[in-house]
Amino acid sequence: MKKFLIIILFFNLIYTHTYSIEPEVFVQSTVNKASQVLSKSISKEEKMNGLKIIAKETVDITGIGFYSLGSTRKNLDDTQKRIYFDLFENYFLKSFSSRLAEYTNPKIEVQSKKILNKNYTIVNSVLVGTSERPEVKIDWRIYTKKPDNPLIRDLIIEGLSLARTQKEEFASILNSNDGDIKALFKTLENFTKN
Amino acid sequence: MFRKLTITIIYIFLLAFHANAGSDGELVLKKDQPEKIKDCFENLNRATFAFNQGLDKALIKPIAKGYKNLPDPIQKGTSNAARNLSNLITIPNNILQGDIKTAIINTGRLVVNTTAGLLGTIDVANKMGFPKYEKEDYGQTLGVWGVGPGCYLVLPVFGPSTIRDTAGSFVNVMGGDPGYNVSVHGNNEFLGEGVFIASKALSGIDFRSNNLDSFDNLEKNSIDFYASLRSLYLQDRENKIKNNQRGRIQVIYEDEEDWEEIDNK
């Protein structure tokens, strides 16, 4: 009986602790994976494909997609939601990987973290400066509701939130087209195709 | 003089009008939360933005690229000198914001860099361990005093702004910039309006050349470049007014409830 209890306790410990990933470790590991892709002598397209795989595993694309839509998300029916998420994922992955693919062998150092609440931790890091570019502060907003599967929800570069910028871009397109979601679909589609 | 006075009165009127607009129920003016800044003149702003982009492609960007090819010491020296000159506006604003300690530090920095640093071309103060320099301007001071940003504006040549920040810029030519006063009204043989304009133009080219890749990258990956720049400009101003080294989370997520709602789905 005693042995049985120990085994139960052991499994419990494994489930509750072993698989939880510290947000700063998660960020450093993600950055290292991206650096490996970027430092390879491969074409830009191949680099972008590598980065897309990393983004799919580490970024909360669905959450960011909902956030980017603002209050419009409440008015979409299920079919529109499905179309939107297909388009958004393609748009996001292209935009994300294309921005990063410009950097060759970037060195990002994780410095500290601030736990905001059980759902969010901000991880502070810097993109180390070179003779070509100055040091850049990058903060990562990590969604930690599932400690075993943390996800990136935003990058805050020198105090500027990419999620907020994207949301305001989407809002601008919707406002310019009387809130017509089809106009946003078309814009996302065009971006992905070009 | 009459023209300047008229312009100033118009801006004060616009500023006052928009500073009070928070009471109309549309704007959120909770403490620590940014206002929803309206793009009241969007059509005009987009037209000005298109003009600025044309000007950038035809003139500013090629000059900035040429500047980027100059030897590093020349670029660094120009950049340092422009930053050093900006102390002339930063120091009075430190005082107006009640930050006397920083005003004293920046005065020391200006004296050291202008003398030992050969007219600011070498940042000796930085090597001596002075604290990191943060630029301040009259737009930021008005923000610190509680004046709302008013509508978003895109100015020809100068780019993104707000009613408040534009009014702040006018303070410079109304006597708030000692550099302008000495150059334009100083009645001396070494400085003139041309020198003042050249120094500002050089400062702009230096900024553009430092951001060639980031602007290209942003433009290429934006679905609405105008809206992207508007968002980035307004976020940056919020951070500067609140002296945030890194964006505070409550400033960045003005609509935190959006995330909460998404999480609860």
Task: Please give a structural write-up.
The complex is a heterodimer of chains A (194) and B (265). The mean pLDDT of chain A is 87. In chain A, strands 1-2-3-4-5 form a five-stranded antiparallel β-sheet. In chain A, a hairpin with a 4-residue loop joins strand 1 (108-115) and strand 2 (120-127). Chain A is α+β, with helices and mostly antiparallel strands and 194 residues long. Chain A contains seven helices and five strands. Helix content of chain A is 57%, strand content 17%. Chain B is mainly α and 265 residues long. Chain B contains 13 helices and two strands; from the N terminus they run H-H-H-H-H-H-E-E-H-H-H-H-H-H-H. Chain B has helices spanning 2-19, 42-68, 72-96, 100-115, 124-127, 138-144, 163-176, 178-185, 193-210, 212-220, 225-241, 249-252, 256-263; strands at 152-155, 159-162. In chain B, strands 1-2 form a two-stranded antiparallel sheet. In chain B, strand 1 (152-155) and strand 2 form a beta hairpin. In chain B, helix 2 (42-68) packs across helix 9, helix 3 (72-96) packs antiparallel against helix 4 and helix 6 crosses helix 7 (163-176). Chain B is globular. The termini of chain B are far apart. The interface between A and B is medium-sized, with 37 and 32 residues.
List keywords for this structure.
heterodimer; A: 194 residues; alpha+beta; 5-stranded antiparallel sheet; 57% helix; B: 265 residues; mainly alpha; two-stranded antiparallel sheet; 13 helices; globular; disordered N terminus
Concise description?
The complex is a heterodimer of chains A (194) and B (265). Chain A is an alpha+beta fold.
